[in-house]
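Deviations from the work plan: none for this task. Representative record:
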Amino acid sequence: GQNIDQPTEMTATEGAIVQINCTYQTSGFNGLFWYQQHAGEAPTFLSYNVLDGLEEKGRFSSFLSRSKGYSYLLLKELQMKDSASYLCAGSGGYNKLIFGAGTRLAVHP
Amino acid sequence: SAVISQKPSRDICQRGTSLTIQCQVDSQVTMMFWYRQQPGQSLTLIATANQGSEATYESGFVIDKFPISRPNLTFSTLTVSNMSPEDSSIYLCSVVGTRSRESTETQYFGPGTRLLVL
């Protein structure tokens, strides 16, 4: 089956660190993506993990554990502009993406 | 990443009519995808459109309702037929990354078409 779960909403304070978790059960799984989507805009690519471990890219890092069906997106030094929805997506073969429902992150001063 | 444009950016349509959405890419791509994002929800894949073959539809989506054309490697259209208010949504096309340094699976999205059906 293909199922991706992530929290619906999170709040955090400017300058802090936040971790957004994603768990999945996806057959034929090739890799896991994180996208950022601001209200009214298209999703933009943040990260892609195909191997276990942590991928760091500036203020954003993404972690994957294939054996545990678990990923997280770590956002450091939060800024107000980081307020957005964060979408976890599994690659289900043939380049198809299966998206979770998304996590709406609100960053407060 | 490829530059992707969509037309129209938004539209308001009457029930029972059809709307064709265009997706243009600035480079040749093999695989293009069409997604729907209903209000407050995440993205759902409608179909995969490969040039030279029939589109492949996901469960719950049919060709009669969402006919797709893919006449060449830079262009595709999605038609939303016989629309009802339930079709009000954002429709997005996407392509797989085209540069060698990118993952061959990373998808990049067009800006979307916001459709409201009255």
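Chain A touches chain B through 22 residues (CB under 8 Å).
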